Amino acid sequence: MHKLIEVEDAKALMTEAIGWSLWGWLTEKRRLRTTADRAWEALEEAKSRVVAAWSDDLQKAHRELEAAAAVEGNPRLKRQYEKAKEEAKDVDPQIKLAVQRVKEAWDESQAARMRAEETFDVSEKRMSTGMAREGAQQAIDAWELTEKAIRKAEAAARRK
Length: 160
Fold this sequence. Notes:
The protein is mainly alpha-helical. The protein has one domain. Helix content is about 85%, strand content about 0%. It contains six helices and no strands. It has helices spanning about 5-15, 20-50, 55-75, 80-85, 95-125, 130-160. The longest helix has about 35 residues, at about 95-125. The two termini are about 20 Å apart. The relative contact order is 0.15.
């Protein structure tokens, strides 16, 4: 995966923000939010491009995992899961395992993103620069985890 300009810009701004005073956080939070949103959009687009380029077997294994996750939250989707499971029945277990690892990495990055968002929300309510700094570092970590997950997805596509 090549470096995404939006993500690198956001990392640089968050790194700078770690040293801001309360006034800096208050005056720059809109720019920070906009830059962070652009970074997340770029990462989401990169992930979508990688997954769209996967082979049929990878796609089938991915649909099966996504359907299985959806069923856990909504039992009405059981039929959709059964269909995805049937389509993926002949997929090599190694491919399914690779897709499972990609999904785990993606889930970890999403959890890190939610932690950063939550930390920022609390820091804003409390007007806490310490928590804002912590949220900035968490956001940087979440972007790095997301980049790592995308690289795993690319590696899965290269497997034969």
